[in-house]
Amino acid sequence: MSGERWYDALARLRRAGLPHVLATQVTSQGSTPREPGARMVITADAIIDTLGGGTFEWQLIACARERLERGEAGLSLEAFSLGGRSGQCCGGFVNVLLETDLGTATRLALFGAGHVGRAVASLAAPLGWRLDWYDSREDAFSGLDPASGQHRHRLDDCNASAESLPAGSHVLVLTHDHAEDYALVEALLRRGDMASIGLIGSRSKWASFRGRLERAGIPHDRIDAVRCPIGDSGGDKTPYAVALAALAELLPLASPRPEGARRDALRGLESAEVRRLFS
């Protein structure tokens, strides 16, 4: 069991977009290890904080991990008779609310922290995506406050940075340097497992890059998948307009969070028994 407290773990996991379950004891009757309001966080390979230990807690952990494994997002209410279902001597009864968050299915790798890059990062923040943000300049991220979901990296080697991305990432390449842009696009296309690649620039820039990529032996179908120019800002070239257009183009390509499952789970909790528990 980790020495981390549940609220610190919850914040960390949500920032990183990682799957987890928040377990909250909502009611108790008789003798129980913890009181209503006690919480713990459960992941596939970690347990943070405790609801009292014993067989009851291990049953709860198994239930939470089953929900993660099955991909069941949302809320569920679990009842434990400590003398019956859990076989513990204290003999009380508890209800535990499980809030399952499957994390974010969308990862965006953003190369470039200039005006457009900063606007993209700001606009993407409410979407709940994991953002890996790269720039090669020493002071690229100066003046920026830490932000939820953002992971900032120094871009020292384009090939190494491209190789470090998880498969299925969405990528926007908009650095301050055309040589970096090209090196990144070529490295990403050689991998061939990105969900999408967008490149900032004009049609003439893309025509030049395309010729170089073809001569480098990149398959045509991979080259054709690159979006350049990114978005359609209607001729407005201000950073905000370009960033807004780029995200509007990317949004339907990105995998949505499984909110449907969460809504289904919420509907499942609309029972008279649950209302009675919280009345």
From TrEMBL:
It comes from Halomonas litopenaei. Gene3D superfamilies: NAD(P)-binding Rossmann-like Domain. The gene is xdhC. This is Xanthine dehydrogenase accessory protein XdhC. SUPFAM superfamilies: NAD(P)-binding Rossmann-fold domains. InterPro entries: MoCofactor_Util/Proc, NAD(P)-bd_dom_sf, Xanthine_DH_XdhC, XdhC_CoxI, XdhC_Rossmann_dom. Residues 108-250 form the XdhC Rossmann domain. Residues 14-74 form the XdhC- CoxI domain. PANTHER family: ALDEHYDE OXIDOREDUCTASE MOLYBDENUM COFACTOR ASSEMBLY PROTEIN, XANTHINE DEHYDROGENASE SUBUNIT A-RELATED.
